[in-house]
Automatic annotation (TrEMBL):
It holds the Pfam family Lactamase_B_2. It comes from the Bacteria. Residues 90-287 form the Metallo-beta-lactamase domain. This is MBL fold metallo-hydrolase.
C-alpha cells in the first residue's frame, strides 16, 4: 500500500515523555474562562435536551448477526460515536459507549437521550473494536469489560492500551498505534491510525494518551472514522492524499462551541474536512445522544442539512437503522418525530 505523495512532511503528534501535544497550536481551555462557561450552562435557554423521551430505537439483532458479505459496506449508528460497521466481510465497532452517563460516576454527568438500540449482549461477533481516544464519551469502561471477555482485537492510539489492560482486556488483543502507523486486521484489511486535533484524559490528568482518527482499508472499500477533532486542514488534506477518497466518511458534528473551537469541528468545519478527505458519503457522528455543549440538541444536524448542499451525500439513519452505503443518501428525520 503506497501512499500518495504529500506536499509537506506528515504531521506528527509531539510527546515530551509525559504528555502529547497536537501537531499544530491548539487551545483546549476556554478563552473566556470556566466561570463564564458555568454562567452559560446555568442561564442560556437553548433546548439542550429533548423535551420528550426519544425512542425506543430497537435494532434488528438477528439481521445484524447475519454473515457479512465479502463486498459489503453498511453502517449502523448506535448513538454518539458508536457505529457497527460491516465492511468487506468484517464487523468493526467504533468507540463503544453503552453506559447511561458519560462521566466518572453513575449518578452525575451527561445522560443518554435514548437507550442503546442494541444491548451489549446482543452484539454480533466482532472482528475489531476501534478506539479514537480515552474521553468518557468515547471509552466506556463497562463496555470494555464486556467486550474484553469476547477476545475481540482492539486497535487504539498510544497509551490507551493501559486502560484496556486495567479493565481486563488481554494484552495480546491490544494493538496501539502512533499516527501513520498501520496494522493488519487480516491479510487484505489494514487499519491505519491517522492524525486528529484534540486532547485526552480522564479525571484531572490530561494528554497522557494519544488521540487519533482511523482509516479502515479493506480490499473493496475504504472508511474514514474521525473520532474527535477540531479544524485541521493540513491534517485532513494529508489523510485524504494518503488514503482517500473514501467510500464512507464518519465525522463529528456536535458539541462544538466558539469557546473550544480548536478541538471540535461542528457542522461547517466537518464539511470542510469532508471535502479535504475527498468527499464521499458522510455519516455525521457525535450528536443527538448526550448534552455536551450549549447548542440545542438538534442544532448540529439542522445546520449540517442547511450547509451541506446537494453535492454532499448525507447518511442520517435513525439510531439502530442500518445504512447500506451503496443505496445512496438517507434521511430518516428521526429527530423530528
Amino acid at each position: 500500500m503506497s501512499p500518495q505523495t504529500t506536499s509537506a512532511p506528515r504531521l506528527q503528534a509531539i510527546y515530551d515523555g509525559k504528555a502529547y501535544q497536537n501537531a499544530v497550536p491548539t487551545t483546549v481551555s476556554p478563552p473566556s474562562g470556566y466561570s463564564e462557561l458555568l454562567k452559560r450552562w446555568l442561564f442560556e435557554k437553548a433546548e439542550r435536551e429533548p423535551k420528550k423521551p426519544l425512542g425506543p430505537f430497537p435494532a434488528d439483532a438477528k439481521a445484524l448477526a447475519a454473515p457479512v458479505p465479502a463486498a459489503a459496506l453498511r453502517a449502523t449508528w448506535l448513538g454518539h460515536s458508536t457505529v457497527l460497521l460491516e465492511i468487506d466481510g468484517h464487523r468493526i465497532l467504533t468507540d463503544p459507549v453503552w453506559s447511561e452517563r458519560v462521566s466518572p460516576t453513575s449518578f452525575m454527568g451527561p445522560k443518554r437521550f435514548f437507550a442503546p438500540p442494541l444491548p451489549l449482549a446482543e452484539l454480533p461477533e466482532l472482528d475489531a473494536v476501534v478506539l479514537s481516544h480515552d474521553h468518557y464519551d468515547h471509552l466506556d469502561s463497562a463496555a470494555i469489560h464486556f467486550l474484553g471477555r469476547t477476545g475481540v482485537p482492539f486497535f487504539c492510539p498510544l497509551g490507551v492500551g493501559a486502560h484496556l489492560r486495567r479493565w481486563g482486556v488481554a494484552a495480546a488483543c491490544i494493538t496501539e498505534l502512533n499516527w501513520w502507523e498501520s496494522a493488519q486486521l487480516s491479510e487484505d484489511f489494514t487499519m491505519v491510525a491517522t492524525p486528529a486535533r484534540h486532547f485526552s484524559g480522564r479525571g484531572l490528568t490530561r494528554n497522557g494518551t494519544l488521540w487519533a482518527s482511523w482509516c479502515l482499508l479493506g480490499p473493496t472499500h475504504k472508511v474514514f472514522f474521525g473520532g474527535d477533532s477540531g479544524p485541521f486542514e493540513e491534517g485532513f488534506r494529508q489523510i485524504g492524499e494518503a488514503h482517500g477518497p473514501f467510500d464512507l466518511v464518519m465525522l463529528e458534528i456536535g458539541a462544538s462551541d466558539p469557546e473550544w473551537a480548536d478541538i471540535h469541528l461542528g457542522p461547517d468545519n466537518a464539511l470542510v474536512a469532508h471535502r479535504l478527505l475527498g468527499g464521499g458519503p458522510l455519516l455525521p457522528l457525535h450528536w443527538g445522544t448526550f448534552n455536551l455543549a450549549f447548542h440545542a440538541w438538534q442544532q448540529p444536524v439542522q445546520r449540517l442539512l442547511a450547509a451541506a448542499g446537494p453535492e454532499v451525500p448525507l447518511l442520517l439513519p435513525a439510531p439502530g437503522q442500518p445504512a447500506n452505503i451503496a443505496a445512496g443518501p438517507l434521511n430518516s428525520h428521526w429527530w423530528e418525530r
